[in-house]
Amino acid sequence: LSEIRFDPSGDLVCVFPVSTVTISGRNLAAIYTAITNHTALAVIESPSGFDDGGDEPYVQSISVEKAEPAR
After folding, report:
1. Who contacts 17 (Cβ-Cβ below 8 Å, separation ≥6)?
2. Which of 7, 23, 24, 46 is the most exposed place for a label (fewest CB within 10 A)?
3. What is the DSSP string of the chain?
4. CA distances from 50 to 25, 58, 59 (A)
């Protein structure tokens, strides 16, 4: 992990040398903290796809984009 950006409005972006992972959802601050503290065991999309609007983090989607090769 070379960089992590957190936008409280709903996106967490993790930049790796070969890819960029974008985690979208709600209340992602706890996930951001776990990643930056190296305590996150796993981050998964909501299996039901249902957001109950509670206080717990809700991961709507996780997308991976391959990094462009350096020239």
Report:
1. 2, 67
2. 7
3. --EEEEETTTEEEEE-SSEEEEEEEE-THHHHHHHHTT--------SS-----SSS-EEEEEEEEEPPPP-
4. 11, 9, 10
CA distance 1 to 35: 10
CB 62 within 8 Å of CB 31: no
d(CA 31, CA 24): 11
The residue with tokens 């967490």 is: 12
User: At 48, phi and psi to the nearest 5?
Assistant: -90, -20
Cα angle: 37, vertex 43, 49; to 5 degrees: 145
